[in-house]
Specification:
Length: 240
């Protein structure tokens, strides 16, 4: 502040009946003072209260184009607890849904006392990674337990710290409603027995690497082992 502005300020301040000493004393009174016990006391008026303004909710007015409060406020979209099959699958006779839980994490190698009795490359006992997914394991358990039904598909529904939960869709191929439905009676053919054990379901094709197509995935067909065997085999025929 310049000198002329400073003098004008003090002249206006003195005209109101105040002095510089009274200004210093009031400022010293508002400063916090320490006590012997380590606490801090604040004088009344030292901390100013700030009013927090909240915008009012306008009422809906079609003439002014003001939307209702439910439309203008942001809301988080809620989702169902699980993404189940379509209603046609749920309501059709001959189709049942079983819930399976699979324990999370890996498994130790089943050897007594961790002794493998083999080469050092095979001496690992812990931190082994299973080649198939938990969803595929759930389909396998349901298919083995219910041998008279065919596994159609499965999906994840929930998980906690110990288990993962899946729902497996199974089809009764002996049911008349299934055999007469052209959209689902393909599974009644004998070649579709235990699809889950041969990697023919959606989860099975995923861990087999059959989700992609093209030259980047040509080593996955018909399978990785068949491709390796074909590349490692030398065939010298007599007439070639």
């Amino acid at each position: 502040m310049r000198n002329s502005e400073t003098e004008a300020f003090w002249a206006d301040y003195k005209s109101q009946g105040h002095s510089r000493t009274s200004l210093r004393s009031s400022a010293q009174q508002q400063q916090p003072r320490n006590t012997n016990n380590g606490g801090v006391h604040l004088c009344v008026g030292a901390m100013e209260e700030e009013a927090v303004r909240c915008y009012e909710v306008h009422t809906e007015d079609p003439l002014l184009g003001v939307p209702s409060a439910s439309r203008c406020c942001t809301r988080h979209q809620t989702h169902p607890p699980r993404q189940g099959p379509p209603p046609r699958i749920q309501s059709q006779a001959g189709i049942v849904i079983y819930r399976v839980r699979v324990r999370r994490g890996g498994r130790k190698r089943p050897v007594p006392k961790g002794i493998v009795y083999g080469k050092p490359t095979n001496q690992g006992v812990t931190q082994l990674k299973f080649q198939r997914s938990k969803r595929s394991v759930a389909e396998e358990r349901a298919g083995r337990k219910l041998g008279g039904l065919r596994v159609l598909n499965s999906y994840w529904i929930n998980e906690d710290s110990t288990y993962k939960y899946y729902e497996v869709i199974l089809v009764d191929t002996a049911h008349a409603a299934v055999r007469n439905d052209p959209r689902i009676n393909w599974i009644c053919n004998a070649v579709h027995k235990h699809r889950e054990l041969r990697g023919l379901t959606s989860a099975g094709k995923k861990f087999r690497g059959l989700r992609g197509k093209g030259h980047l995935h040509h080593k996955a067909r018909p399978s990785r082992r068949a491709t390796w065997k074909r590349n490692q085999t030398l065939s010298l025929r007599r007439y070639r």
